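Hi R.,

Quick one: here's the IS1595 family transposase sequence you asked about.
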Amino acid sequence: MTNALTVREFFKRFPDDETCLTHIMDVRYGMKHTCRKCGTESTFHRMSDRRAFACAACGDHVYPTAGTIFQDTRTPLQLWFYAIYLFTTTRHGVSGKELERQLGVTYKTAWRMGQQIRKLMGSVDNFELLQGHVEMDEAYVGGKRSGKRGRGAEGKTIVMGLKERGGAMRAVVIPNVKKETLRGVVMQQVAKGATVSTDELMSYGLLSDDGYKHGRVKHSAKDWAHYDYRTGETHHTNHVESFWRLFKKSIAGTHIHISQKHAKRYLDEFTFRSNHRAMGNAMFDLLIAAV
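And here's the predicted structure, written out as tokens:
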């Protein structure tokens, strides 16, 4: 794992807005590239009166922040970079109040910045089908249970997690745990022929008929893992359950509450970190390149 940038290293690398803007230009277009207007492979120099670079051959302007989360922002680019740095170095997420304190901006600005960064995180990962052995489990987040027993609860957001062993984590918001809903998610996310481990939820009974090798663990019977001698596979959902434990703990401790409307963005944030945690400070560069 690559070590993450320290705060001191971050500010040494990005001491001001000019450095940040040049970095965005470099990762998006390159300081030397073929001009879209004159077709010349040209160098581009910084313009003094706007966030733009001009072609040395014809003077055509390139605005590196156009079409990004930085477009038209009045917040200094260095603060945006530092907010992204905080998101990539944390384990439990960054709340709007924490961004407000760290950046010295209003809560409204901090909240909007956080949502834009989560949206950016959700745009990075590719959407190749999960393969091999995939664990699946659904969870209920947010809201309060109306009683002491039972899985469902009014006001809670239902989420479904899929974790390829040794591979990517996916998490999606679902409206219910009916057979048609779960089947649709599996068909969209998991390649046919994959081995799938789930709990005993009845709705998962469809998987074998759809071309998946399906194994279950019965948590109600204290069956947490078992070995299938016919296929040589060990069935459990430990990895995806670990993701849900971290997610729920982080939401309760950092954000207190998340709404159904924005639940997907928080899921995207946590799955991004889960999928790229081995990258260390390269995770920051990946996000900046994604703008």
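The chain has a mean pLDDT of 88.

Cheers,
M.
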